[in-house]
């Protein structure tokens, strides 16, 4: 009996020690620093819908975490693959990433679109329309397994830093840019260039953002708990609310910068105002429809 009591006591202490060591571990989270409003770099920190969701979930689970900038999008993925990053806060799912990461429930759908210079539009209704043309996109991007495979097998696409991709498009050295819709809307407004580009319809694909965790990380065992809380955040409208808040934040920043950089360019400002006014209703309608999908299309999960 004495030995049994000693065994139970030792087991209890060991379990308590394991629990405390797990709780004391700081998990590293990161993401694409150029994917607003989902995640972006500002003032040397990551902001956006993804970071907000991550903070909410990991804080509620009482886990220590550090959301860090870990380089460009390609570098972030490499660090997750090597184990230097435990969690990616917003990522599309594809076969290569699934080899070393577990994916949460989807929490936000987003169309991927083709952007061209205004006046250089071409008929677009099928992926085949891109064959024979030169494309560019941000380094490290994936657009879902099917389109990724099509790009690799059939298209000529250069993956470079996002600013360089925009430059190549503006210089006429690329025929089109592959980019996520939200990012396209924000960056073209930020650079006051939306009256110089056209977003072709229809989108090439629509993918959903997931939280992704390195399979070898101790954090991976928390995925069921993360999914449960993520499901609630989508269903109760929190994700949609965060989207609207961050998108509006970007609009205010864009308006502020536009007034500063273009205060002496009245003609440009008039053209810009006219274009934005004409497009505002279209953008709201498109984004509202997408956000509705994030609630209605979510797979069932334990509440």
Give structural notes.
It is a single chain. With 303 residues, this protein is α/β, with parallel strands linked by helices. The chain has 2 domains: 2-108 and 210-241, Periplasmic binding protein-like II (D-Maltodextrin-Binding Protein, domain 2); 110-206 and 253-296, Periplasmic binding protein-like II (D-Maltodextrin-Binding Protein, domain 2, 3-Layer(aba) Sandwich). Helix content is 48%, strand content 23%. Strands 1, 5, 6, 7, 8, 9, 10, 11 and 12 form a 9-stranded mixed sheet that branches. A 3-stranded antiparallel sheet has the order 2-3-4. The protein is globular and about 55 Å long.
Biggest sheet record: 9 strands, mixed
Distance between the first and last residues' Cα: 43 Å
Q: What would you give as the CATH superfamily of the largest domain?
A: Periplasmic binding protein-like II
Low-confidence stretches: 6-22, 260-282
- Please tell me the CATH architecture of the largest domain by its name: 3-Layer(aba) Sandwich
Summarize the helix and strand pattern as letters: HEEEEHEHEHEEEHEHEHEHHH
Please tell me what the overall shape is.
globular
* Average pLDDT, all residues: 82
Any idea what the radius of gyration is?
22 Å
CATH class of the largest domain: Alpha Beta
Q: What percentage of the residues does DSSP assign to strands (E)? A: 15-25%
Structural class: alpha/beta
Tally of discrete structural domains: 2
**Fraction of residues in helices?**
40-55%
Number of E strands: 12
Number of helices: 10
């Amino acid at each position: 009996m004495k030995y049994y009591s000693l065994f139970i006591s030792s087991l209890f202490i060991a379990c308590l020690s394991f629990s405390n060591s797990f709780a004391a571990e700081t998990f590293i989270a990161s993401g694409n620093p150029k994917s607003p409003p989902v995640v972006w770099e500002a003032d040397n920190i990551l902001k956006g819908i993804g970071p907000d969701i991550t903070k909410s979930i990991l804080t509620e689970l009482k886990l220590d975490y550090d959301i860090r900038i870990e380089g460009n999008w390609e570098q972030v993925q490499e660090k997750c693959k090597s184990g230097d990053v435990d969690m990616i806060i917003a990522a599309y799912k594809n076969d290569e990433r699934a080899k070393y990461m577990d994916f949460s429930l989807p929490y936000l759908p987003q169309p991927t679109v083709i952007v061209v210079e205004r006046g250089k539009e071409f008929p677009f209704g099928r992926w085949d329309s891109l064959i024979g043309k030169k494309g560019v996109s941000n380094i490290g991007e994936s657009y879902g397994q099917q389109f990724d495979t099509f790009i690799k097998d059939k298209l000529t696409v250069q993956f470079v830093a996002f600013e360089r991709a925009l430059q190549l498009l503006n210089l006429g050295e690329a025929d089109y840019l592959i980019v996520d819709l939200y990012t396209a809307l924000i960056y073209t407004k930020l650079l006051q260039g939306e009256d110089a580009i056209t977003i072709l319809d229809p989108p090439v694909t629509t993918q959903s953002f997931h939280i992704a965790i390195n399979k070898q990380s101790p954090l991976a065992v928390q995925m069921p708990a993360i999914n449960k809380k993520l499901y609630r955040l989508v269903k109760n409208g929190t994700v949609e609310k965060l989207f609207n808040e961050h998108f509006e934040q970007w609009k205010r920043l864009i308006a502020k910068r536009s007034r500063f950089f273009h205060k002496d360019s009245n003609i440009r400002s008039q053209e810009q105002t006219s274009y934005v006014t004409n497009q505002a209703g279209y953008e709201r309608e498109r984004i509202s429809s997408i956000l509705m999908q994030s609630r209605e299309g979510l797979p069932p999960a334990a509440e």
